[in-house]
Amino acid sequence: MSESTRPLAGRTAIVTGSTSGIGLGIARALADAGADVLLNGFGDASMIAALTAEIAGAHGVKVAHCPADMTKPDEIAGMIPFAEQALGGQVDILVNNAGIQHVAPIDEFPIAKWDAIIAINLSAVFHATRAALPGMKARKWGRIVNIASAHGLVASPFKSAYVAAKHGVVGFTKTTALEGAELGITANAICPGYVWTPLVEKQIDDQARTHGIDRESVIRDVMLEPQAAKRFTTVEEIGALAVLLCGPNGQSFNGAALPIDNGWTAR
What is the DSSP letter of 169? Predict the structure, then answer.
């Protein structure tokens, strides 16, 4: 993206869960659009250092990493001052992306897994938003993008915690949008169908065990079955939508839950 078409130049963004998968794709897209970016997530220290250097070098922006644990409210809130110090700018954009998954029938669902999914997929969205809003309100500008899911709009069996959390994210997004509307702050939820990421790849094996079928059947008959187009969404497509929502052409999107799901929720 050329300098003249970098709509997020001068902005500072946090993307949670961004050392791989959808979050990394969004971080790359925001950096390409000119934003300085704080990455967040677990991973080998040398890999993360190489990743931050690679994104910074490729896009000519500042990139840093914060290892905040998305189950710990104090660490989540601490990402805001961390980003401001590491990147030298106030946080304008917050992308709540971190998420985990577990597949099991409700009566067999491990309580610890339920608690972890709700904490990371839903409560962390609240804690990060709560910490970012005061600065956005003071500057009368902010963009909050929550990565929900098609499962924030419809349900599937064996994913009770994930479906509950993602429905909660969509509802929380709407409330955030209403509270920020007169203050120059927008909040929107992106609702992907299946995106090819490490999380989805792990789900294939989990679903195969749950349903007692092979991987190919999981992909064809379970995962992609509800989608009108039998393809995985790409992380680049999710990143492009995030850039639109955060840029000048996205200011009228507010409180939206935007499916990017190959026709899944059109049924």
Answer: H
pLDDT in tens, 176-185: 999 999 999 9
Topology (CATH) of 9-193+234-253: Rossmann fold (3.40.50)
Q: Nearest Cα to 18, choosing from 94, 102, 80? A: 94
Flag whether pLDDT at 4 surpasses 70.
no
Contacts (Cβ under 8 Å, ≥6 apart) of 137 = 180, 183, 185
Q: Smallest Cα–Cα separation from 33: which of 51, 53, 15, 60? A: 60
Annotated catalytic residues are 162
158 φ, ψ (degrees, to nearest 5): 75, 10
Tokens describing residue 176:
């955030």
What is the predicted pLDDT for the residue at 186? 98
Burial of 179 (0-12, 13-18, 19+ CB in 10 A): middle
**Mean of all residue pLDDT scores within the chain:** 95
* pLDDT tens digit sequence for 71-106: 999 999 999 999 999 999 999 999 999 999 998 999
Rounded to whole angstroms, the Cα distance separating 68 from 91 reads: 16
How do the domains of the chain map onto residue ranges? 9-193+234-253, 196-232
* pTM, entire model: 0.94
Q: Which residue stretches of 65-194 are H helix? A: 73-87, 111-118, 124-139, 160-180
